[in-house]
Amino acid sequence: xxxxxxxxxxxxxxxxxxxxxxxxxxxxxxxxxxxxxxxxxxxxxxxxxxxxxxxxxxxxxxxxxxxxxxxxxxxxxxxxxxxxxxxxxxxxxxxxxxxxxxxxxxxxxxxxxxxxxxxxxxxxxxxxxxxxxxxxxxxxxxxxxxxxxxxxxxxxxxxxxxxxxxxxxxxxxxxxxxxxxxxxxxxxxxxxxxxxxxxxxxxxxxxxxxxxxxxxxxxxxxxxxxxxxxxxxxxxxxxxxxxxxxxxxxxxxxxxxxxxxxxxxxxxxxxxxxxxxxxxxxxxxxxxxxxxxxxxxxxxxxxxxxxxxxxxxxxxxxxxxxxxxxxxxxxxxxxxxxxxxxxxxxxxxxxxxxxxxxxxxxxxxxxxxxxxxxxxxxxxxxxxxxxxx
Length: 389
Ligand SMILES: Cc1cc2nc3c(=O)[nH]c(=O)nc-3n(C[C@H](O)[C@H](O)[C@H](O)COP(=O)(O)OP(=O)(O)OC[C@H]3O[C@@H](n4cnc5c(N)ncnc54)[C@H](O)[C@@H]3O)c2cc1C
What we know:
The protein has about 400 residues and is an alpha/beta fold. Helices cover about 35% and strands about 30% of the residues. The chain folds into three domains: about 5-45 and about 95-170 and about 260-335, FAD/NAD(P)-binding domain (3-Layer(bba) Sandwich); about 70-90 and about 170-260, D-Amino Acid Oxidase, subunit A, domain 2 (D-Amino Acid Oxidase, Chain A, domain 2, 2-Layer Sandwich); about 340-389, no CATH class.
């Protein structure tokens, strides 16, 4: 049973929505999370890579949702040169189906209510004020009143648009991704591979993330402007045919990742946007799990306080805190992404050749970056262009 009215209604039970729900409920607010799918955490559309450091503020690591522990990155340049880097933290490849579900349980244990098979399709307006949500549950049209609504409805978010927020993302910033989970292949189960180059993944990268000892998520993302010339699916099929033709494809997923900076407006009157809906993805890596949880936690806590203190103006603190904590960094990553993803194959090869000369134990992401600038001083100007314009 759900009530007719809640302090806060959240659309979407992904990591951003359930973390927002938990943090709001912890402030004493009544919270309802609407999820259109039948299950929290499924279907999974994700490479499932996170850092341990990123997730531990929100959930304690548990073997039941850790498929692999990562300690090595291997970057592969267009001519096949492998650059191995020891990761100075711990990375995980998740079982997101279980991970998201556990985040849902934490939200519920804090007092939030989750309703699955509940598809939000419009806002309720009273004159010019938003007072709730319309949704469909088990084929029945229903309404719920709310003082605050949080849009955590992912990349295809509509909550913001309904509220009059500009949510448009440039096509070149919308990475078109496709991924197979492949089984019966031999891999280093502690290493993540990243392949670059115009033949593999133009304007993006291709990933091979191990899931245990004999499976992997193999996917790629290419800018939407390039995807119209050749489909991401044809690139991934070509790669798998060349490298893993003997293995079996168990699942295939596709989806967009908004690799842009955060939306200008993520709080408006009694509406907040979090996670992919707010474009809080790290634009350089395309990772949005951790940043979505950070956005969700900030928004949820502020929404809960706003209810407690009966002061909806507090919602405008959310964009400021997000920007200081993460948004500012994302603006820098966005500029770096635009520079790196436009590197020619020759530049990528030349950087890889230089880095392989550094002893393995001295290689870091920063040292690669420095080499990129040292070997190609002209890159400084290219980078500068992106930083200052
Ligand atoms: C192929 C691919 C690979 C990726 N790999 C990685 C990776 O390795 N690491 C990483 O960190 N990130 C990765 N990402 C990005 C990551 O998946 C997202 O950034 C992350 O899931 C965002 O969380 P979220 O809670 O904002 O949205 P989501 O996880 O998308 O959750 C949104 C939820 O809202 C629900 N919903 C939507 N509309 C409605 C509605 N109208 N009513 C009710 N419910 C609704 C959806 O069903 C969904 O459950 C990848 C993405 C893709 C597509």
